[in-house]
Specification:
By secondary structure, the chain is of the alpha+beta class. The protein has helices spanning about 1-15, 30-50, 65-80, 90-100, 100-120, 130-145, 150, 175-185, 200-215, 220-250, 260-265, 270-285, 290-305, 405-410, 415-420, and strands spanning about 25, 50-60, 85-90, 125, 160, 165, 250-255, 255-260, 310-315, 315-320, 325-330, 340, 350, 355-360, 370-375, 385, 395, 405, 425, 435, 440, 455-460. The chain has 15 helices and 22 strands. β2 (about 50-60), α3 (about 65-80) and β3 form a beta-alpha-beta unit. α2 (about 30-50) crosses α8, α6 (about 130-145) crosses α9 and α10 packs across α12 (about 270-285). The model has no long low-confidence stretch (mean pLDDT about 90).
């Protein structure tokens, strides 16, 4: 008993799971693991000077039996002067209405109840009885599903939850050790008959795979817990490195993120994977198991030999490669914008660009980033409009005998494929293209003022900081 308590106490202190004055909510099913947890903290609450509370959820999956579990926990808490919160949640009715995985729904509802209790009673830490055997099962199940390091790290000793943290102080001990500890304490517990069935993935691993591993080495669960802890520490260090490198590889550009492929591919593979995961965390709140598959697709896109390529991501996001960059943005199904008439002497904003046209001499205040183009009004058919591209659009460029197709111009100027349909194009009343904003102007314009020029056009790229 002393050895068990010392091992758990050392783990708690190494992981900094508990501080003096903490208010702890112990999740207790009434089973051997959680009852062992309650007994442990009853013994050590004065040592850490913590307040203890117990929470129990009856999922109503085993009718009267599960209700008896609730009564068992409530009686124990009353006998030991522990405040207890308990509830019954109609999981069968929820399953009938929603469908889905019963284990996932149980977990969702259970943790929602814990969250509610913590907020209502100013409790800062939820304590669960996950142990080394749970860690081994979790790691093996993750390995069976996919080969991601993130999954193989297993269960964390602590993580943010509700208004505080969820902590797992039993990760350093096995289920067998917990049972022996509870028996020595003279404690009792409830058996959940559903744990004996092979209906759930975890139970199949527990009943058939774990025993084989323990035959080879009885300490395999402890080894798994130590491995998970090392992986978590290594991953934390690599994630910090990836965070420090992120801004040199990825930039925020308006409503999108832009990944620079050349800089990205110079990073070690371990950082590349984590940089992508950081990026996905900006795009999504929760992807869970999908992260690994999406990361692999993005890595392949970075290595693609094609100048332009695109992949569709969840929730209508797109990763569009254009030469040396990949743009990540949400696909918007918008109506074709109507052409907008240009008013002389007024600034106009178009999809990342500003346009201003005025008679000379002008008195407009112009930013350094704006480029001036001079022209003669008599050579242009007014009024002017800005529209998006059409099929067979061409622009007459200075020094070229024949007009150049816009489709070719976009390719030559390396305009991302996904941006071409929305690019602003200035035309006159005859629909002749005068300028592809921010790219090229036609032969009637000059950056140097000529003798007969009487008007000026300013084109400015809108900075993300404005």
């Amino acid at each position: 008993m002393v050895a068990f308590e010392k091992k758990v106490k050392n783990f708690i202190e190494e992981q900094q799971l508990i501080e003096e004055g903490d208010r702890l909510l112990i999740a207790c099913s009434g089973g051997v693991d959680s009852m062992g947890l309650v007994h442990f903290f009853i013994h050590f609450r004065k040592h850490w000077k913590v307040d203890l509370y117990v929470a129990h959820v009856d999922h109503m999956l085993r009718e009267e039996v599960s209700y008896e579990d609730r009564l068992f926990v409530e009686r124990f808490c009353k006998e030991n002067n522990l405040p207890v919160f308990s509830t019954s949640i109609p999981i069968p009715a929820i399953l009938e209405k929603e469908g889905g995985n019963s284990q996932a729904i149980c977990r969702r509802e259970r943790y929602a109840y814990f969250d509610e209790i913590m907020k209502q009673h100013n409790i800062n830490k939820l304590v669960t009885a996950h142990h080394a055997d749970d860690q081994l099962e979790t790691m093996l199940m993750s390995l069976a599903r996919a080969g991601s390091v993130n999954g193989f790290k297993g269960i964390a000793a602590k993580r943010p939850f509700s208004v505080g943290m969820v902590i797992r102080p039993f990760l350093a001990v096995t289920k067998e050790e917990i049972k022996e500890y509870l028996e020595e304490k003279g404690g009792t517990f409830r058996e959940d008959a559903s744990n004996l069935k092979d209906d759930y993935t975890r139970n199949r691993f527990r009943h058939h795979i774990i025993p084989l591993l323990k035959k080879e080495n009885s300490q395999v669960a402890i080894h798994a817990a130590e491995l998970a802890q090392n992986l978590q520490q290594d991953d934390e260090c690599l994630n910090e490195l990836a965070e420090s490198r992120f801004s040199s590889v990825v930039e925020k550009a308006g409503d999108r993120f832009v990944l620079h492929i050349r800089q990205f591919l110079k990073e070690p593979l371990a950082l590349q994977r984590r940089i992508i995961l950081i990026l996905l965390n900006y795009l999504y709140h929760h992807l869970d198991g999908k992260n690994f598959a999406i990361s692999s697709k993005i890595m392949d896109l970075c290595k693609s030999q094609e100048g332009n390529a695109m992949i569709y991501l969840p929730e209508q996001y797109i990763a569009a490669r254009s030469y040396d960059i990949i743009s990540f943005f949400k696909l918007r199904t918008s109506k074709k914008e109507e052409p907008q008439t240009i008013e002389i002497g007024k600034w106009h904003d178009f999809n990342g660009f500003r346009l201003y046209i005025e008679k000379l001499p002008h008195d407009v205040s112009v930013q350094n980033e704006a480029i001036a183009y001079f022209f003669n009004a008599s050579t242009i058919a007014f009024p002017l409009r800005v529209r998006t591209r059409k099929e067979r659009d061409r622009i007459q460029l200075k020094g070229m005998q024949d007009p150049k197709r816009l489709s070719r111009l976009f390719i030559d100027e390396k305009i991302p494929l996904i941006e071409r349909d929305g690019w602003p194009i200035l035309v006159d009343s005859n629909d002749e293209i005068l300028a592809v904003l921010g790219v090229r102007v036609n032969h009637r314009f000059s950056k140097t003022r000529r003798m007969d020029d009487d008007m000026v056009m300013f084109i400015e790229k809108i900075s993300d900081n404005k």
